[in-house]
Every structure is written in C-alpha cells, then in structure tokens.
Amino acid sequence: MLQEDIKIENLLLNLEHIELVANWVYQEFCEGKPDRTVDFVINCFKNRNLNKTPISLIALIDNKCVGVVSIFDNDLETRPELTPWLAGLYVDPNYRCKGVADKLINAVLKICKNMNYDTVFLRTEHTANYYKKHGWTFVEDTTDEYGQETSVFMRKLI
Prior knowledge:
Blueprint: E1 6-10, H1 18-30, H2 38-46, E2 55-61, E3 64-72, E4 85-91, H3 100-114, E5 119-124, H4 128-133, E6 137-143, E7 149-156
Antiparallel strand pairs: 1-2, 2-3, 3-4, 5-7, 6-7
Helix pairs in contact: 1-2
C-alpha cells in the first residue's frame, strides 16, 4: 500500500462512518468514564465542523474507513490555556504501521497551520515514544479531570 492510497477527508462528508469511528473512540478513550457513552460520542461526532474546531478527519483506503483523528480547542480540562489539540487518534489494528497515522497527523498539522495556529498540543497515556520519534516535544506529565495520568506534547508549526 502506498501513501497515495490513503485519502483523508472530513468526517462530516462521510457520515456513514460515524458509528464505526464513535465505537473506536469510545472503546479506546472513553470506556470506564461515567459521563461518556457510545451515544454521547456519536452525538459529539455529529456536531463536528468543516472549517472550525471541533473537526474530525478520517482515513479512507478504497472507501473503507481505517482511522480517525480530531482537532479540539481543548483536550485537557486542567490546561485550558493550551490550544488547539490533536485528539482521539485511532487506526484500525489491521492498518497500523502503514502510514495511516502519519497521514492523519499531517492533515491535522496542515489544518491548524491554515487556521493560523503556531503550536499544536496532544495528550497520551500510552504512546509517548511514538510522538517523541515523530518530532513532538514533551511538555509535562500531569493528571486529567478523571485522575488519569497523561503526558502532554507540543509541535511547533513552521
């Protein structure tokens, strides 16, 4: 598979994939959080935007959805001054290590730059080494509003 085979599109232009990506995001990031249900996540995705945050992008290969990522004003309530955030990056396990995540991340960075941001933030609980290897700068280890330990990274947009 080539990078050119991966198409990145706004989720709002591909509504048929909302339930799939909502289930991925719920299972990966929301399960066990009492105020988050699959229906809550589906409704969040239905309320995304085309040209302003929050935005969700999907990766398509032969019209099959294989990944998702979002851009939020804030993804860490304990650090409201930091904005915008790359959030909810998920790639179908069958398509990992094939460039899908890189393409989704690059699309987020391009959109944020076009929105005149000079820095993008993200948080991660398990993939700090991935982001370090891909040029993100560690900011801090902190705790979120649920008491979960998380690492914050940033990326300058040139």
